[in-house]
Design brief:
68% of the residues lie in helices and 1% in strands. The protein is built from 51 helices and two strands. It has a two-stranded antiparallel ribbon with strand order 1-2. The N terminus and C terminus are likely disordered.
Length: 933
């Protein structure tokens, strides 16, 4: 993999910009008073330094020429040279520095040499390059090549990477080999600067020059390869170094583990950790911390916390604040604040200090959830613990209050921040700007903007983008453009983020020529457009159905080296449906496949929505099943598209069934929050609906259904009340969701009130509605009311279904009214409704509970005769009944039947065996019985 290069490699400093001129200096005039020079050097060599100083004070100042000549004469005595150098009345010349450096290097006085170079490199104004003078002195003194290496390391450590690369190149020309230590310094600094291409080139030239890597080189290169060529390349490199006999230390493996974690392959990182003892390395707390960070990044919080338990079990290691802090931060990032605070108290209980980083993570976590009371409480907790909050603490609170639209509270935190000695930064202003823009208070945002400028706080790209985006969303595009021009005149806003924001605003309102004109101006102003710029303009053309413009922009994008992404193809699919060119959709999908791109949820959303608009429900539904088969979860947009299509075709019952089957509360934004923020939810849904009132209505139905499914009835009722106040017209699905939620939660009066409200607005409750009410009555123990309502169904023109009967039969059985339950089953048959497996299982359960095992078995036989196949629950109910009466023989028969029907695996797992009352031998036969109460 890393073969040494036989070709001549290009000079490294051409990989970077801003190299100093390397013209050779004119040698200093060495002519001076020979007598004075002789007397001065004799005194210095005798180490009579005070006499030398007196001689210079009486005979005149130490001129550069005299200094150069004297240094040459005392070049074998480093102490004499140092004292002479210090006698110079002003900063000595670069030639004198070069002479002294050579002298010190020859004498191996590395500490003095480093001090000399540090002083020179920190000088203001910066000194010109020293290297040409070093070369001149090297030719004169014929020693010491080590001075070049000292300069290389000093430049690298000081961050003067251009100068270090030039010295590295010039040393090779002189036939001097840099030490591995100096190369390591340069490689490390280049890696920190992110100049990974140069890192690889330096490493190759090191090998070409014969400088062998050591364990530190390997560690630095592992980190660089992970970031530049991928973690697989880094792993291969470490293996190669190990085979070459180069030591690979724990730091190198940490780099590899971090590389795996960064790309979401934390299990690979764990395998690296587990392999360390076999190669003679012991994992430390840092090793485990890297594993924790990887799991947190992948949102595997249980595994991350499990690592803490692993460390605790290891007697050689002690868990620290950093590991706990990483897991706590992971929980906070995911809104799991109860888990975060649990770990915080655990830290305290085992004697660890909760530091500011942990407190800030918790503050930020509460702020993201909008739980500002708890967040503010943590600020006081920090102060009580004797820890001083920092700007991050205050800015998190400011941002949290701004997110909730509580701008007065946000400004109060700003005042507190200033009182406690902190300066309001651009981060604070950006949060405030975003808060005002989110509320639509554009005038307030503009006043804050000018206040920033007045106070000398320069807006950054986030400030500009936030304000422009706020104007555009408020429909004030012209004002946004005028402000942008003013900002440009001030020398601000010439960055990619701001340009993309303005272009996006123009595209949203269909002003495509202006958006494309701005693309040209970006090139003129040396702010090259990125892939997002091109994608935004192409998407703008797609929204207007101008596929010619979209394809032209995509071609231009490819021409400058950006490959079209999956997002670009998703826009093209949407555009083709808008342009009524759905016949070309398959061509786009084929091209995606050719480029190695797989359809994602958004792709399927565009396809399903497109075919729904075309009225091809079969194609849309098939695509839904296709995406489900690939493990992709439908989102709110997909669900609403399918339901809308069903509604348009008059298939209301099918639409409601789709909603019940597809809706998952995870697809609804902000629904998981403890306190539902209806305003934010409305903004999110309006964005997805894109102004389509029909789509918005379906989405609100989904939200109400989701809240009821979660048991959050109060939130559902609040959403419904808020929507009615805004003119929302509820339909059968809306009321059915609320009635079912209220009934199951015991709010029967509210449920019946909603039924009456349905009737008053002209909606007819269906059997789903009445089944919910009957279920609620049964659950609340009001069987007589449930039966009464059941008897009224026919007069309302509604026929009961199997669910209606099963609900009542179940209640009769639970209350011990077995005869009534069987009468209802008979009526069910007379009404032409076939009893289901649930009907029979309910009745069998009722018989078993009361010890009527013979009747229960007869009912099982009847069930089978009627071609209703019993399930696991049916058999298990019977087994439980026989357990109570201790009839092992019948239990064995039932297990045999279950095996025949495939309802029980032949080889049961330990958990299943433990749950079952009968233990099995190897032949699968019952051998003894465990009695349960």
């Amino acid at each position: 993999m890393h073969q040494r290069c036989c070709r001549r490699l290009p000079p490294l400093y051409f990989l970077r910009r801003g190299i100093h001129s390397t013209s050779t200096p004119t040698p200093a005039d060495a002519a001076t008073d020979a007598t004075l020079l002789g007397r001065l050097t004799r005194l210095l060599l005798l180490h009579r330094y005070s006499a030398a100083a007196s001689l210079l004070s009486s005979s005149g100042p130490l001129t550069p020429a005299l200094l150069h000549a004297a240094l040459r004469r005392v070049r074998l005595d480093p102490d004499a040279a140092l004292h002479l150098f210090r006698l110079a009345p002003s900063r000595p010349s670069l030639l004198a520095h070069a002479q002294l450096l050579h002298i010190l290097a020859r004498a191996r006085r590395s500490a003095d040499a480093r001090t000399l170079l540090a002083s020179l490199l920190s000088a203001r104004p910066p000194a010109p390059p020293l290297f040409p003078h070093l070369v001149e002195v090297y030719k004169d003194f014929t020693f010491s090549a080590a001075s070049f290496d000292l300069l290389l390391r000093a430049l690298a450590n000081a961050g003067h990477l251009d100068g270090a690369l030039q010295v590295f190149d010039e040393m090779r020309k002189l036939g001097c080999r840099p030490t591995v230590r100096s190369c390591n310094s340069m490689l490390n600094r280049l890696t920190q600067a992110g100049d990974l291409g140069t890192v690889v080139a330096v490493f190759e030239q090191m090998q070409h020059a014969g400088t062998l890597p050591d364990e530190f080189t390997v560690a630095v290169m592992a980190k660089a390869y992970c970031r530049d060529k991928g973690v697989a390349h880094a792993a291969e490199f470490l293996e190669e170094m190990k085979n070459m006999g180069v030591e690979v230390n724990l730091v190198a493996y940490h780099a590899l583990m971090n590389g795996y974690s960064e790309v979401g392959r934390t299990e690979n990182a764990r395998r690296v950790l587990e392999s360390l003892p076999s190669i003679g390395l012991s994992p430390n707390v840092v090793t485990y911390t890297l594993l924790v960070k990887g799991y947190c990044k992948e949102e595997k919080m249980e595994e991350a916390e499990g690592v803490i338990r692993e460390i605790m079990k290891n007697k050689q290691l002690a868990v620290d604040e950093v590991v706990y802090g990483a897991v706590i931060n992971g929980y906070c990032q995911r809104g799991r604040m109860e888990d975060a605070t649990r770990l915080q108290y655990e830290m305290i209980n085992i004697g660890l200090q909760v530091n500011l980083i942990v407190y800030n993570s918790i503050i930020n976590g509460y702020c993201k959830l909008g739980r500002m009371v708890e967040a503010h409480k943590i600020l006081h907790e920090i102060e009580d613990a004797g820890v001083r909050p920092d700007t991050y603490s205050y800015n998190s609170l400011v941002d949290g209050y701004c997110r909730k639209g509580l701008m007065t509270k946000a400004f109060e935190i700003c005042d507190m921040m200033v009182r406690n000695g902190f300066t309001v930064t651009i981060l604070t202003y950006n949060a405030l700007l975003k808060g005002f823009c989110s509320l639509g208070s554009i005038d307030h945002a503009l006043r804050l903007w000018f206040l920033m400028l007045k106070r000398g706080v320069a807006p950054n790209e986030i400030s500009c983008s936030t304000l422009f985006d706020g104007f555009i969303k408020a429909g004030k595009t012209e004002k946004a453009l005028n402000l942008w021009k003013e900002t440009l005149a001030r020398g601000l806003a010439k960055n990619i983020t701001t340009f993309n924001t303005v272009i996006n605003g123009l595209c949203k309102i269909g002003r495509m020529p202006e958006a494309e004109e701005l693309l040209g101006r970006m090139k003129e102003w040396r702010c090259p457009p990125d892939s997002i710029t091109y994608r935004t303009i192409a998407s703008g053309y797609c929204r207007t159905g101008d596929m010619v413009g979209a394809i032209r922009i995509m071609n231009e994008m490819e021409g400058v080296g950006f490959a079209p992404s999956i997002e670009m193809f998703n826009s093209l699919i949407t555009g083709l449906f808008i342009a009524k060119q759905c016949g070309k959709v398959d061509d786009i999908l084929s091209e995606m496949s050719t480029r190695g791109l797989s359809p994602n949820t958004v792709t399927y959303g565009a396809l399903i929505a497109g075919w729904c608009k075309e009225g091809d429900l079969e194609k849309a539904y098939n695509l839904y099943f296709e995406m489900s088969g690939k493990g992709l979860t439908p989102n709110l947009f997909i669900c609403s598209s399918l339901v809308s299509c069903f509604y348009r075709k008059g298939k209301v019952d099918e639409a409601n069934l789709v909603l019940q089957k597809l809706v998952d509360t995870d697809m609804i934004p902000d629904i998981s929050a403890t306190r539902l923020e209806i305003g934010k939810l409305a903004n999110a849904l309006d964005t997805v609906a894109g102004g389509n009132l029909h789509s918005a209505k379906i989405m609100w139905n989904i939200v109400i259904f989701g809240l009821c499914k979660l048991g959050r009835i109060e939130d559902a009722k609040n959403v419904f009340a808020d929507l009615k106040g805004k003119g929302f017209v509820a339909d059968n699905f809306t009321y059915s969701s609320l009635i079912h939620g209220c009934s199951t939660s015991g709010f029967l009066d509210v449920a019946f009130g909603l039924r009456d409200e349905m009737l008053s607005v002209g909606l007819t409750p269906n059997i789903i509605t009445y089944n919910s009410l009957i279920y609620g009555l049964c659950k609340s123990g009001e069987i007589s009311r449930a039966v009464s309502l059941f008897k009224k169904l026919q007069s309302k023109g509604i026929s009961p279904n199997a669910i209606t009967y099963n609900t009542l039969i179940d209640k009769y059985c639970k209350d011990g009214h077995i005869t009534e339950a069987f009468k209802l089953k008979q009526r069910m048959i007379e009404d032409g409704i076939k009893p289901t497996v649930f009907t029979y299982s309910i009745l069998i359960h009722g018989l078993c509970i009361h010890g009527y095992m013979e009747e229960a078995i007869k009912l099982l036989d009847q069930m089978i005769e009627n071609n209703v196949h019993p399930n696991y629950v049916t058999y298990w109910t019977l087994i439980q009944g026989y357990i109570r009466c201790g009839n092992m023989k019948e239990i064995s028969k039932l297990y045999d039947e279950m095996h025949i029907r495939g309802l029980l695996p032949t080889h049961m797992s330990g958990d299943v065996k433990q749950a079952c009352p009968v233990a099995y031998n190897q032949n699968g036969k019952a051998c003894h019985m465990k009695m349960y109460c």
